[in-house]
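Bump. Still looking for Pseudouridine synthase structure tokens.
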Amino acid sequence: MERLQKIIASAGITSRRKAEKLIEDGKVQVNGETVTELGKKADAAKDTILVDGVPLQKESPVYYVLYKPSGVISSAKDEAGRKTVVDYIDTDKRVYPVGRLDYDTSGIIILTNDGEFANTLMHPKYQVEKAYLAKVEGIPSRQLIKKLQNGIVIDDQKTAPAFAKVRKTDQRKGTSLVELVIHEGRNRQVRKMFDAIGHPVIKLRRERYGILDTKGLNAGEYRELKPHEVKKLRDSAVT
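Sorry for the wait, here they are.
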């Protein structure tokens, strides 16, 4: 017997967090009974589980890494008809992105149908690092870089300690390239952190997610993860 949201996530329907929302919204049935409590357990092998009226069938897990271009939605679908990261993946499996990258941010993003794997990578408590390269207005002082490293208040909450370093400056254009490594994933966090120190982001790219980077990929290209990469990503999570 396992928690219902875990069973749904493992079946490749969606992430565990979104599975919890489906349960709370009354869109999940077990043996003909609508379930709205998150603590409900079921037997995937014996019980009849419906999600939005569709019987649950477990898919074999797949894992992809995509170099997301700027101007693409980090979602499985978009009501406005805009291009999403899923549109780049040629597969018959129901994959979805692990976390999000802003519409105007490019870089590495993982897609999978393995909900437990996705939850492990996304949850802040597992401290999976995400490295960004930001082109920002102006040239941040050492004191301001130190603020980013120590944590800075955005949306009334202090960010966790981070790695931050100025990689390059352009005195003529008045811009800088700053590397920022975080393990949180709040909404537009990187941009808000730079706004908070008075150096707004001009351009942003996520260069690394855990052990994965964009080497060998151009914007819009993807590849399937190797088994040892999936294992390393799991093992890199701090439990």
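The mean pLDDT is 90.

Edit: fixed formatting.
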